[in-house]
Amino acid sequence: MNDGRVLLALGLLSAAQAAGACGRPDAGRPAESSPSQARLYVTSGLTDQAFRLDPETGGVVSTFDLDMRRDEVDEPHGVTIAPDGRHLYVTLAHGNPTLWKYELPDDRLVGRVRLGSKGASRVGLTPDGRLAFVPDYDRAGAGAVSEVTVVRTEDLQLVGRVKVCPAPHDAQASPDGSLVGVACSLSDEIAFLDPATLEVVHRFAVGREPGSPGEPRYKPLNLVWSPDSRFVHVTLSAAALLRTFSLEGEAVAEVRVGKGPAQLASALDGHILVTANRLDRTASVVEVSFSPDGRPRLEQGRRLELDVPYPHGVALTPDGETAFLTYEGEPGRAAGVVAVSVGDGGVAWAAELGAYLLGVAYYAAESGR
Prior knowledge:
The two termini are 36 Å apart. The protein has one helix and 28 strands. The longest helix is centred in the first third of the chain and has 16 residues, at 3-18. Helices cover 4% and strands 47% of the residues. The chain has a single domain, classed as YVTN repeat-like/Quinoprotein amine dehydrogenase (Methylamine Dehydrogenase, Chain H, 7 Propeller). By secondary structure, it is mainly beta. A hairpin with a 4-residue loop joins strand 21 (272-277) and strand 22 (282-290). The strands form seven sheets. It has a four-stranded antiparallel beta sheet, with no helix packed on it. A four-stranded antiparallel beta sheet has the order 4-5-6-7, with no helix packed on it.
C-alpha cells in the first residue's frame, strides 16, 4: 500500500469502528436459509470480509473471513453467484490474488485457488457456470498489458491466462456463451474472448479519440450484455457516459449518467439499467427500448439521490424494481449498503457495515439470477 492508501484505509476503518459497523449485532449467527430464499452478498475491502444480508431488511445473516494475511489488507473485491444458485465466488485483489468458492445455501467454503496475477477485480461466469474469468486489474502497471485468468470452477483448476490489455476490470460472458466481453480500463477498449479457444477474437476503441495506454480518456470499467447477446452496455467512468456497442464496435446508443459511473446492473429482460455513480453520490436509472431490428435505445430515467459516499457496486432484482448499492465510505462516515426503489427512489433500508464496500451480488432462486 502507498502512504495515501494507508491514510485512507485508517480513516475508513476509524469511521466503521466509530459507527460500530465492522460487524452487525447479528453478524456470524447461523444462516437460516433454504435454496428458495433470495440472497444478497457484499464484499468489504478493508476488513477482508464478505457479508450475506437479508435483502428484505439489510440484516446480516452470515459473515465470511477472507483474511489471508493478518497484517495486510487483501481486499475482497468481486462477488458473483453461479447461474444455478449452488455456489458463490469471491475474489481477493491484493497480496496473492485468489478466487474463493463457497457452497450455497449454507455459505460453506469448499476451496480457493491462487490466480498468479498481480491483481483481481470482478469475476464473470459462463452461462453454464463451468468457467470463471477474473481480470488482472493491475493499475500499477500503467500501460503494460495485463491478463484475464480463466478457472475451471468444478475443481478450481487454472486453465489459462489470456493477455488482453492494460488493467482489465470486468469480464462477462454473453448470455449465449459465445463470447466474453472485457472492459479495458486503461486502454479505452473493449475486447472479446472466445471461451472455447481462450483467444482474443476482436477488440475496438470505445471512443473516437481514445487515450494512450495508461492514460485513458474514457476509462471503461464495467459492462453488461443485452439479453440477445448482440450488444454490450459499458460504463465510461471518465466521461460520465453509458454507451452501447454492437459486436463489431459500432456505438449504437449512449446516455449521460452521473459522475464516475462504476458498476452497472441490468434487469432480467434488459429494459432497465442502473449505474452506481461513484463521484456524485447518485445512481442513474436508464430505460432501454428496442427498435424493430432489435437495436437498443437508451433514455435517462430517474437519478437516484443516495447521499452516501462513493457508491460503487450495484445489483438489481430480476424485475428491475429494487437496486442494492454498496458504498465505500469515507473518513468520518462508515461504508454500507442501501436498497432503493428504482421506480420512485424511495429507500427501503440502509445498513452500515464493513469498510470500503465494493462488490454486490443478488440471487433469487425462482428467476435463476
